[in-house]
Amino acid sequence: MSLILVSLALLAALAGGWLVWRSRSAAPPVAAPIARAPRPMVPVAPAAAARPATAAAPAAPAPLVLPPEVLGSLHWVAHESLPTAQRQALVAAVRRIPRPPAALHQLLSPQFLDRASSHELSELITGEAQIAAKVLATVNAPYYGLQRPVSGIGQAVTFLGLNTVRSICLQYLLDDSFKPANPALKQAYDGIWNASALASELCTRLSAKLGVPDAGALVAQVLLSFLGHLATATLLAERQAGAPPAGGSLLERTRHAQTVLGLGPAEIGALLLQEWGLPAAIVDEVRAIDRLLVTAAGELPAASSQRLAVAHLCARLGEHLAAGGPATAGSLAGLAAGQAQAEEGFHLRAHLAAPALARLPEHLQAADLAQALHTLQQGMQARR
Questions:
Q1: Do the beta carbons of residue 214 and residue 114 sit within 8 Å?
Q2: DSSP string of 312-331, one letter each residue
Q3: CA dihedral 207, 302, 351, 273 (to 10 degrees)
Q4: What is the pLDDT of residue 33?
Q5: Hey, is 194 helix, strand or coil?
Q6: How far apart are CA 359 and CA 211, in angstroms?
Q7: Is residue 220 within 8 Å of residue 309, measured between CB atoms?
Q8: Distance between CA 31 and CA 247 in Å, rounded?
Q9: How many whole angstroms separate alpha carbon 324 and alpha carbon 205?
Q10: Could you tell me if 378 and 143 are in contact, meaning their C-beta atoms sit under 8 angstroms apart?
Q11: Average pLDDT over the chain, rounded to whole?
């Protein structure tokens, strides 16, 4: 019995083993994993909020505007830059021009220009009897149009204004320094003095209309700016005996004087004023008037640019009027526009564009301004 049980157990074990082997052999083989090519990386755009703002394209630079060739070719020579020997020779030449009376320094002192009254001006000029007589003769001349003659400087100031009378005094204080024997040179002097008187009167009236500060100083500086032209005419006559003084525009005269003498009129005038002992500040301000010819508007503070623009324009218009240009309400504005639009007016045009000078064309058309200048012109013609 036990043998039968053992045999049955052995058969069961063999059957179980066969079934296990059978199930394993019947299962499909496990496939090897298929190698796949890596998927390309697709860039993910950042969210709109995370994108950096696109920088604005830079504005195109303003076109560079260069002065015309006729002006750009002028190299302005400052007297400080001259070789020592050449500068000393010019200093020696201007020293031969007689010094004006000592009253000139007081008349041009900042304190006197700022605060002088008609009484103080009268006292100063009365101390120069010969000058006072010439001033009164001029004031009473028909071309100032006084209704009745005046007998003193104070009365003249009442009728003509302090700046006008001071300019007349200044001109006569300087007049004795320029007494030529040469008829051609005398004619040149007369033209320059007439231009200075017309320019000073124009500056006096325009400064008042425009509200220019320190107008008295500016008017005096305009007149002094013509001293360089007087001195240049003197030196050219010495250097080129018998030759008539150079004419033409300021640009042409400056170029010619630099060629012959080494310096232009403004720089020679600066040497002269230095030799006469005027303060350096006045010398520099006077020289800057003609030098505006080559001075860009951006090189100066706004206030200086505006003052010099008025002074430079008045000086150039004074030259036109002294040469016979008409002084009418329409012609003055036209002359100013022509000066600004000319090739040598390239920098002046930029200075005159200042907002503070916007009403300048309107003021140039004022009837009272034209009448005053026309009367002066008539008187000058009558003296010839």
A1: yes
A2: HHHHHHHHHHHTT----HHH
A3: 70
A4: 44
A5: helix
A6: 11
A7: no
A8: 112
A9: 20
A10: yes
A11: 82
Contact 354, 348 (CB under 8 A): no
Cα separation, 95 vs 237, whole angstroms: 16
The residues, any chain, with a CB within 8 Å of residue 304's CB and separated by 6 or more, are 288
| Confidence class for position 57, pLDDT limits 50, 70, 90 | low
pTM: 0.80
Q: Closest Cα partner for 229 from 281, 267, 284?
A: 267
Q: What is the pLDDT of residues 129-158, one digit of tens each?
A: 888 888 888 888 777 777 788 888 888 888
66 touches 347 (CB < 8 A): no
Contact 218/207 with Cβ under 8 angstroms? yes
Quote the tokens at residue 4.
């039968």
Per the model's pLDDT, the better-predicted residue between 325 and 1 turns out to be: 325
Please check the confidence at residue 8 and state whether its pLDDT lies above 70. Answer: no
> Measured in Å, how far apart are the chain's first and last C-alpha atoms?
176
Q: Which amino acid is at 200?
A: S
What pLDDT score does 65 carry?
61
Beta carbons of 219 and 196 less than 8 angstroms apart: no
Of residues 200, 272, 275, 260, the one with CA closest to residue 229: 272
Q: Are 310 and 203 in contact (CB under 8 A)?
A: yes
282 to 105, 204, 208, 313, 383: CA distances (angstroms): 11, 18, 21, 19, 32
pLDDT value at residue 3: 46
**362, two tokens:** 């309107």
Phi, psi of 46, deg, nearest 5:
-65, 155
pLDDT of residue 127: 83
| Six token digits for residue 109 | 């002192």
Angle 322-323-328 (CA atoms, 0-180°, nearest 5)?
A: 70
In terms of phi and psi (left: phi > 0; alpha: psi -120 to 50; beta: otherwise), the region of 126 is alpha
Among residues 383, 349, 380, 374, which one has the least CA distance to residue 202? 374
Kindly report the length of the chain.
384
Q: To 10 degrees, what angle do helices 84-95 and 265-275 make?
A: 70
Q: Which of 33-37, 199-203, 325-329 has the lowest mean pLDDT?
A: 33-37
